[in-house]
Write a structure and sequence with these properties.
Blueprint: H1 3-9, H2 42-56, H3 60-68, H4 73-77, H5 81-88, H6 91-106, H7 126-138, H8 143-151, H9 176-204
Helix pairs in contact: 2-6, 3-6, 7-8
Length: 205
């Protein structure tokens, strides 16, 4: 069993059942991406497709997925961290962020209307939490919307602390019993592959 098969059987609690194929909004039908565009024109290529996507959906989640998601236009044109950081400092990226903000302002739907939602739990000092509450009140936003707004913005490397020692906290992906199920399925898959290879070797001897 492949890793993809394993992952397809292990779903988050918020995921729709396999029968609910309409729970995830389909990909937008936009013009093909020109991946061979010169580096100096890549920002304009992003905006060309962003403007088309902007006109075709009222969902900021769908727009974000198509443009800035892991399989989106931006990641395809700027696949490495260095080129991505350079794009994030450009006027084109700022315009793209303004488009996301405009769509979030006008999109009345829930985030899970376009795709399943994920939840993260973070530990933070009480003083930082209090500051977030004050800031959200000043901006007339929920803390959730305020935090999403902050997460949508790139963070300069000089503002990120160095990791000391081993990384703590929950890792992305299945946890607890679901993690044990995943490990068991992967081990069973490896065992099956080993048996097949062994039988093949014996047959050739």
């Amino acid at each position: 069993m492949s890793q993809a098969d394993t992952n397809s059987q292990l779903r988050y609690a918020s995921d729709p059942s396999p029968e609910q194929t309409d729970a995830i909004a389909p990909r937008l039908d936009i013009a093909p991406l020109n991946v061979n565009v010169p580096d100096e024109q890549k920002g304009k290529e992003v905006l060309r497709l962003a403007q088309e996507a902007f006109a075709k959906t009222g969902s900021w989640v769908v727009f974000y997925r198509e443009m800035l998601g892991v399989d989106g236009v931006v990641r395809k044109l700027f696949p490495d961290s260095e080129s991505m950081r350079q794009f994030e400092a450009s006027d084109e990226f700022a315009e793209l962020q303004e488009m996301v903000a405009a769509m979030r302002s006008q999109d009345p739907s829930k985030g899970d209307s376009a795709e399943p939602e994920r939840m993260i739990t973070i530990r933070l000092p009480m003083s930082l939490h209090d500051a977030l509450k004050v800031e959200s009140a000043e901006m007339n936003l929920s803390i959730n919307k305020l935090c999403i707004s902050k997460l949508l913005q790139p963070v300069a490397g000089r503002f990120i602390p160095l990791q000391q020692g081993r990384r703590r906290g929950r890792r992305p992906g299945p946890q607890g019993p679901r993690k044990q199920v995943q490990d068991a399925m992967e081990n069973a898959s490896k065992s099956t592959e080993s048996e097949v290879n062994s039988q093949g070797a014996q047959g050739n001897s």
